[in-house]
Amino acid sequence: MSSLDQFIGILGAAYPWVKAAHVTFVIFWIAGLFLLPRFYVYHHATTPGSAEDRAWIEREGRARSIILTPAMVIVWVLGLVLAMHLGAFSQGWFHAKLALVVALTGYQGWMSAYGRKLAKGTRPLENRTLRIMNEIPGIATAVIVVLVIVKPF
Questions:
Q1: Which DSSP string corresponds to the chain?
Q2: Contacts of 104 (CB under 8 A, 6+ apart)
Q3: Structurally, how many domains does the chain consist of?
Q4: pLDDT digit string (tens) for 49-61?
Q5: Burial of 96 (0-12, 13-18, 19+ CB in 10 A)
Q6: pLDDT band (50, 70, 90) for residue 7
Q7: Whole-structure pTM value
């Protein structure tokens, strides 16, 4: 495909701008997915109902409402537009990438639900488990990057 061919499709000349915005918001989203479980590790150690507990609840809520949710929505919208532009829905690498993005979206939902449990004063997981959960976005991101760049299938 020549460099001019990439501009053909529903986006036309806007393609590189949409792609740049998509990558930027992916970075924001993944940064938030790294941040939130780390917050939970620190929050987990606080006494339920304490001033420190309330401060973590507020920080976590801001991370979800200011960073995570808006970035995730923008990533989905721009990603689907890019997929339509490229005709990616018929490509195997895209199906694998899409499955991982769905999994990361579910992970974010699970992390948000866990934050609500912490806010209620329950601590159902061990700190070690939360630290391990913090690795999920990094692993998924590395696999997604390989799928997008290498397109192995």
A1: --TTGGG-SSSGGGHHHHHHHHHHHHHHHHHHHHHHHHHHHHHHTSPTTSHHHHHHHHHHHHIIIIIIHHHHHHHHHHHHHHHHHHTGGG-HHHHHHHHHHHHHHHHHHHHHHHHHHHHTT---S-HHHHHHHTTHHHHHHHHHHHHHHH---
A2: 29, 33, 136, 137, 140
A3: 1
A4: 999 999 999 999 9
A5: middle
A6: low
A7: 0.90
